[in-house]
Design goal:
Elements: E1 2-4, H1 10-22, E2 26-28, H2 29-35, E3 39-40, E4 48-53, H3 61-69, E5 71-72, E6 78-84, H4 91-96, E7 103-108, H5 122-144, E8 149-151, H6 159-171, E9 179-181, H7 190-194, E10 200-203, E11 206-209, H8 219-223, E12 229-231
Parallel strand pairs: 1-2, 1-4, 3-5, 4-6, 6-7, 7-8
Antiparallel strand pairs: 9-12, 10-11
Helix pairs in contact: 1-5
Length: 248
């Protein structure tokens, strides 16, 4: 069984590629949280994987909430695949403190935090995704063999220190007041439908965030079909990103 959390498709891309070779079941963490499903029965020979993005050198809040409540029967080989735009820092340690892991992997994919950075060119995206596919193939080999260990080459220097210094900016930030909606909005409601925390409602044909803080996964921003949603002052000019190798 492979649990994954995705906003722009990078984790889904990795999880689907692993599942295609291992035959494991795919489960969307956001759907689990929405439904309140935290108990799962695993077959004796079934591995348990977590494929998650790295936010501010840590794990998304929703992933931590899920892991705290997860009850998985048996004693499966368990592993986590962390995908990031640069480094994972101490994100793997955050998972291990919540759920025991036999193996940890890291993959650099395509950075898409547009409130701060421009999206990569199409050529750069292809190059990164091609390289990540090779890394996924190596992960598949180790997962099939039940190989224990830390195989994360993208933690960067001083990973625990970096996470402890930067992650609080995410944990105590995530303010929905930074979201704005421009005149392109058609009121289609896709943002409301895909929000992992279901904190968006449509009022007068436009999305409204109903809480002070959300996951800030930016799925609503990237997946808006008319690029009507922005976060902060820079995101409007920094492009949008969806992994071209997956389907939502």
């Amino acid at each position: 069984m492979i649990f994954y959390f995705t906003a722009t498709g990078n984790s889904k891309f990795i999880a689907e590629r692993i599942a295609a070779q291992t035959g494991d079941r795919l489960v969307d963490i956001a759907e689990c949280v929405r439904a309140g499903n935290y108990s799962y029965d695993l077959a004796d020979d079934e591995a348990l994987g977590f494929v998650v993005p790295v936010y501010f050198y840590g794990i998304p809040i929703i992933v931590g909430d899920f892991l705290r409540k997860l009850n998985a029967s048996g004693k499966p080989y368990s592993y986590a695949v962390l995908n990031c735009g640069s480094t994972t820092a101490g994100a793997g340690g955050q998972i291990r403190r919540l759920f025991p892991l036999d193996a940890e992997f890291g993959i650099v994919t395509v950075d898409n935090y547009v409130p701060m950075y421009k999206t990569a060119s199409d050529e750069e995206k292809r190059a990164r995704l091609d390289k990540s596919e090779l890394a996924i193939d190596e992960i598949i080999r180790r997962v099939k063999g039940g190989t224990p260990g830390v195989f994360n080459d993208c933690t960067g220097p001083l990973p625990r220190l970096v996470t402890s210094a930067v992650y609080p900016l995410y944990k105590y930030g995530r303010k929905t007041g930074k979201f704005t909606v421009n005149g392109n909005c058609t009121g289609c409601g896709l943002c409301k439908k895909i929000c992992p925390r279901q904190v968006i409602k449509i009022e007068n044909g436009s999305p409204v965030w109903t809480v002070l803080r959300c996951e800030t996964c930016l799925g609503c921003l990237h997946r808006c079909p008319v690029a009507a949603i922005n976060y902060g002052k820079k995101s409007a000019g920094n492009g949008r990103y969806l992994n071209p190798r997956v389907k939502f």
